[in-house]
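Researcher: Here's the sequence for the chain we discussed earlier.
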Amino acid sequence: MQISAKKLAELLGGTIEGDGDVLVSVASKIEEARSGSIAFLANPKYEEFVYTTEASILLVSKSFTPKETVKPTLVRVDDVYRCVSILLSQFGNQATKSGISNKAELGDHSTIDPSAYIGPFTVVGKKVQIGAGSQIDSQVSIGDNVKIGNNVRVYPGVRIYRDCEIGDNCILHANVVVGSDGFGFAPNPDGSYSKIPQIGNVLIEEDVEIGANTTIDRATMGSTIIRKGAKIDNLIMVAHNVEIGAHTVIAAQTGIAGSTKIGDRCVIGGQVGFAGHLKIANGTKIQAQSGINKTIKKEGTSLYGSPALNYRDFLKSYSIFRKLPNLQERLHDLEKKQL
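Model: Thanks. This is the structure I predict for it:
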């Protein structure tokens, strides 16, 4: 792909300073950019590279004021990060394929749209539906009665168990497992456990992205649900009957125990642990490595710690906690003087 500064400005709703006809064909980091590339400045820490970069076009905010002469053509926009997302989608588009590899295996009565692609060594079960433009890479396993929407991207090694549903425009990265059994066991009088059959499914709505090696358990009954637009990182555990709200983002290594309901537009850091059967209000923000053991009712709450506290309360508490050894010494000295 090759595009001019003028066309980029039109695409991003920006304004130009410099040569509007200059062409770029690749996006690069500002500190590594070469002629023919576009770079961006979103973090002020990287401003020093504005004056040394070899990029042909530089994407900056409308409020940015250079302190020195700038060589690249500037494209000024309202929101640099949002525009970078648009930009990378243009330069990073992967060519779509269609057709079914002769090394793939298809079950009876499955419906594959002619514009979809099924890669080699992929196994598709019975009565599966795969929509238009979907790309199913190699070594994927799709169980019976699975429904996959339009323009879904499924990377190598993904396992989608029976009866699960994937909405339009979803992305499942390598080795994601959708629909494995929930951790359901009934204790017996002799101390052993009997397996509770997991007869539900997983429902993933449209525009969801799921990172590599994440596992989403099927419901015991009903559905484990990932709502529209949710973004789930690598190595995350979603247990049976969990619901994750629309446009919620969850960073890596988070674990969510069974039947917990997470609201819309929540922001959850890495390695957060959720106990089961909780309800987390819309807009909740949780710092990394926090432990959530109670329901959060107030929308927009920020939490930190394990067990988690209000974010500001945790910072105040921590500022005292880290001084405890010194305070103990001072207290000991005072006690000695009193004696």
